Known about the structure:
The structure is a homodimer. Chain A is mainly α. Chain A has a single domain (5-106), classed as Winged helix-like DNA-binding domain superfamily/Winged helix DNA-binding domain (Arc Repressor Mutant, subunit A). Chain A is 57% helix and 11% strand. The first copy, chain A, has a 3-stranded antiparallel sheet with strand order 1-3-2. In chain A, helix 2 (12-21) crosses helix 5 (82-106). The longest helix of chain A is centred in the C-terminal third of the chain and has 25 residues, at 82-106. Chain B binds a DNA duplex through helix 1 and helix 4.
Amino acid sequence: xxISADILRxxxxxxxxxxxxxxxxxxxxxxxxxxxxxxxAYGFKEATLYTAFKRLEQNGLIRSYWGEDGPGARxxxxxxxxxxxxxxxxxxxxxxxxxxxxxxxxxxxxx
Amino acid sequence: xxISADILRxxxxxxxxxxxxxxxxxxxxxxxxxxxxxxxAYGFKEATLYTAFKRLEQNGLIRSYWGEDGPGARxxxxxxxxxxxxxxxxxxxxxxxxxxxxxxxxxxxxx
DNA sequence: CGAGATACCTTGACAGGCGAGGTATCTCGT
DNA sequence: ACGAGATACCTCGCCTGTCAAGGTATCTCG
Lengths: 111, 111
């Protein structure tokens, strides 16, 4: 967990949408995938994750359904909506711009 | 102002430190420089700026002094401290890691 | 039968961003 | 002489996202 949460603040929704764009998934799995892809440098706290799901669903960017009853604990699956895909595209665009701007503002200058 | 504020949240201090690393400056000028370097895509709100100055000074990362009395409104100048330079180096490192992690998490996947 | 993993969820506190409002000085056009 | 707009500073209180802490239930393995 080498990246502080405040730095990632505001990217939570985009990260979740990006995971769901690859296929339906559920909270625990999404979180594991994120941690893994981040090389252990970042992971959601559970409270953050479920707060985000609620927010995303209220905004119509994802929808949810309970998984089939099988062995193990019940799972709530999430699926990205069309509006969610549009939001994700916008988020990716914004991230691209953010990188350019922050690189310009934080860059190492030799003086 | 195409980049939303939440995305930049947490980067405010690093941006200010980076400006001050190039030389002492004052609020209004820092803000102008930031806007200009960001190509108009981002700028601090005044309240954000002065809140940040106070926070940074309390944390010993910058110090301040009133400029010489000349024509025009008085100016409070800020200077980066040694601790501030160390923080800036850490922030730059973190930003570099953040880019790598977010690129991995938000990337466009063709499936 | 207990520990640990899987899997979900809520509450309340905290911190940063910022809209709105305020003060004072200087310049420029009329 | 006067008003508008730029320069330059500052504070108060709200909003929103994060998260520590706490809670529930199921399955596996020793």
